[in-house]
Amino acid sequence: MRYGLARIRPFLIITALATLAGCATSPQERKAEAQQHRAAVLNAQLGIDYMQTGNLKLADEKLKRALSQDPNSSVVRNAYALLMQRLGRNDEAEENFSKAVALKPNDGDVHNNFGVFLCEQEHYTRAYAQFKDAWSNPLYNTPEYAYANAGVCAVRQGDKKLAEQRFEQALKVQPGFAPALYQLAKLASEQGDNQKADAYLGRITGEARYTPDILALCLKVKREVGDMNGAADCARDLYRMFPNSPQARALLQNQ
Q1: Count of Cβ atoms closer than 10 Å to residue 180 Cβ
Q2: Cα gap 152→158, rounded to integer Å
Q3: Domain ranges in the chain?
Q4: Chain segment 126-156, per-residue pLDDT in tens
């Protein structure tokens, strides 16, 4: 996942099964409706999987099939909105996010994803409302994602103080949450406080440490604080794990 400021992406995409609902009256009709819904959700998940691997053509085919099977599924509408967002078809993305929210207003993941989209369009007030709807929902299992996305959105808007507050709120929910720690480290580094940035980065553990953005920032911060061994470790991991990343290429060009 990317946590950069230039372009926000949803930190989490969850396509849980939507609650079955409909107007079928007979057992046969209810069974057929349930089967259609399950098929639609399966195709929506396949569409998400294809989208994540970059196969947008197959993603589009699966998601259009899902829409034809159950146009009243929040899961399907959310998935199709994400594809439209990826393709830059923003009117269709907003339409489908809006329908997904209307179909399942208590789905925190839909609110979170819609907020990310609105922030990309610089509709900041509307974006914050969606993030708040997500983290305020006691049934939303991962409010740290909504807080962190709201923080990234605040950075884009130029409000670094608010951004720090949102990232800290994410950490109150999940103390080791890597996206929030990375963003706080980046803000601290930009403000010249590399000791503080190094401390934030030091709290990122395990596999979460290994992203191009985190390793590139780690390299920069370690150099600034004079930890050349630590800088060498970060550079080595960046080259070894992400040799074709823009961060690794930039490092090579600057050497």
Answers
A1: 31
A2: 10
A3: 34-104
A4: 999 999 999 999 999 999 999 999 999 999 9
